[in-house]
Amino acid sequence: MCTVGDLLTERAVLGVIATLAVLGLFVMLCRARRVSTSVEDAVMDMLDRMSRASSDLRAGLTEEAANKATPHLREMLRCVAVAITDEEGTVLSWDGGANDHYEYLRDTVARAINNCHKEHVDHRKLGCELQGPCSLHSVVVVPLVVEGDVAGTLIVVSGVASKRQIRMAEETARFVSTQLELEVVQKQRQALAQAEVKALRAQISPHFVYNALNTISSLIRTDPSHARELLQEFAEFTRYSFRTDGLFTTLADELTNIHRYLTIEQARYGSRLNVRLRIAPEVLQVVLPFLVLQPLVENAVRHGLAKKPGGGMLTITAEDNGNEALISVEDDGVGMDPERLDDIKDAHQTGAHVGIGNINDRMRTVFGVEYALVVETAPNAGTKVILNVPKFARNVLPNLNIGSQMSDEPMTNEQPAIRA
């Protein structure tokens, strides 16, 4: 027969067991948490090191960039030393110990460069004459390959020879090579962007320059003061449009140049060209690709309003849209069949619209595919081109040498740019 004392004893034992089980589970969770936290910290540290090294290497394989990157790479690899050489085997940077051993590594580095293959050598084969223990036990030399060519080598000096260290050296070299290739791509991208701007200038200049000079020359005798004003506007327009520095500008500067363009065109078309600006002042400092709006305005004038009997209205709108500026160029001219655009990216190749494909490509390249142009058009219904421009984008900065020359007078929703 079970007594109350027996029940209490059994419950006490069960309580102790349950308590120990809970304590054991708590300890396990705490230990797991400590391990997890340690791993998380290590991963965060690794990511931080990689981020810092990558930003340094984006400047190219220079001595300065190598000096900044090697400390981070050595911390990532937890090794004795990390070095980077150029394509001729000259050391650009050596971070860590055993740097006096490079003389023993010259042949190894040369083989890695010539054969475009990693080289692994241990201390016994180096001919080291150091008396006593040497911190250099193993060396891995991995070529840095950029676009198929050896740009240099990564040297990893370890205190212990292991397959794991060799694999980590290879992966780190691949990481470094990728960053160097991205630097090359960035340079090519900038060169392409410059070429695209030059292409836009070539498209703008032939017809507009000829017509502008004709308009000005026709006024020299009848209205010399007006001719002088137009000539000044033309000079400022060409100075801005044909500048050689900077791939980006502010909306304010772009609108100032458009004002010059429209001043000249209105002298040519007279009352047939009416212009309306709807500009929110808070978006005037938004940065966008250089010469991205003027060609759209020129298209509206040439292909929309000039072909419409009696002309019409050109409306330029820039609105605050949260993290973006919503910009549009609209005319109520003759419009076109949307199928004539034949995919907007190719429209500029046929001459149908000045630079429209070029502008579309630049918007997509700079900001992303989601920032492609949107075109709304139909026969006898005018044309509207819409741009979404992010207010902030990485590496998109205006050319500070060209200051904004917009009027201090704030633009309201119905302020005309030019009065007939």
Give a brief description.
This protein has about 425 residues and is an alpha+beta fold. The protein has helices at about 5-55, 65-75, 100-115, 165-220, 225-240, 250-270, 295-305, 345-350, 355-365; strands at about 80-85, 90-95, 120, 140-145, 150-160, 250, 275-280, 285-290, 310-320, 325-330, 375, 385-390. Helix content is about 50%, strand content about 20%.
Describe the structure.
It contains 9 helices and 12 strands. It has helices spanning 4-57, 63-77, 102-115, 163-219, 224-241, 251-269, 294-305, 347-350, 356-367, and strands spanning 81-86, 91-96, 119-122, 138-146, 149-158, 248-250, 273-279, 287-289, 312-321, 324-331, 374-377, 383-390. A 5-stranded antiparallel sheet has the order 2-1-5-4-3, sandwiched between helices. A hairpin with a 2-residue loop joins strand 9 and strand 10. Helix 5 (224-241) packs antiparallel against helix 6. The radius of gyration is 34 Å and the shape is elongated. Residues 1-37, 344-352 and 401-420 have low confidence and may be disordered.
Keywords:
19% strand; disordered N terminus; single chain; 5-stranded mixed β-sheet; alpha+beta; 5-stranded antiparallel β-sheet; 420 residues
The DSSP helix count reads 9
Coarse shape: elongated
Q: How many beta-strand elements?
A: 12
Give the low-confidence spans: 1-37, 344-352, 401-420
- What does the average pLDDT come to? 76
Order of helices and strands: HHEEHEEEHHEHEEHEEHHEE
- Adjacency order of strands in the biggest sheet: 2-1-5-4-3
State Rg.
Answer: 34 Å
Question: Span from first to last CA?
Answer: 114 Å
**In percent terms, what proportion of residues is strand?**
15-25%
Biggest sheet, in brief?
A: 5 strands, antiparallel
**Proportion of helical residues:** 40-55%
